Amino acid sequence: MALHIGDRIPEELGTDQHGEPVKASHYAGKKLAIYFYPKDNTPGCTAQACSLRDGYSDLQQAGYAVLGVSVDSETSHQKFINKHTLPFPLIADTEKRLVQLFGVWQEKTMMGKRYMGTVRTTFLTDEQGVITHVLAGREVDTKNHAVQILGSK
Q1: Is-catalytic flag, 45?
Q2: What confidence tens digit (pLDDT) does each residue in 53-95 have?
């Protein structure tokens, strides 16, 4: 199953870097940018996280909260957040429940080898948690992602 524009995000989103539950209702009344990325501390993922960090106040002014999601552990997320001073939570989807529900856990190919992994994807919601826009794969501009989100209608 994959979520699409017009679908409501699930209430239970997972646990953050501190093991605390993250729920859609925590963001009621705010637009949400949920971004799925392959791995903490890799070049593209770091560029994307830092773009969101640098544009965070503009995103907040536009009514957005930001949530990152990868299959990395809570400990990995804590280190990633501390290293890059990220002001938003990261969901540790170690059981791959959320990546599968959103449809971003897919077969990928690198240097002729096939494997399963997270396809870089950002879901934007309205204030009621309904998906309004999806940016996926190469469409995601990791170095300018905050600006890209702000320009999405």
Answers
A1: yes
A2: 999 999 999 999 999 999 999 999 999 999 999 999 999 999 9
Q: For residues 58 and 78, what is the distance between their CA atoms, to the nearest angstrom? A: 24
pLDDT computed for residue 105 by the predictor: 95
CA geometry: angle 69, 13, 104, nearest 5 deg: 50
Active-site residue identified among 33, 45, 66, 92: 45
Domain presence at residue 7: no
β-bridge mates for residue 136, sequence order: 121
Q: What CATH number has the domain bearing residue 38?
A: 3.40.30.10
Indicate whether 114 belongs to any domain.
yes
Q: How far apart are CA 135 and CA 115, in angstroms?
A: 22
pTM exceeding the 0.85 threshold for the entire prediction: yes
At 113 the three-state DSSP class reads: strand
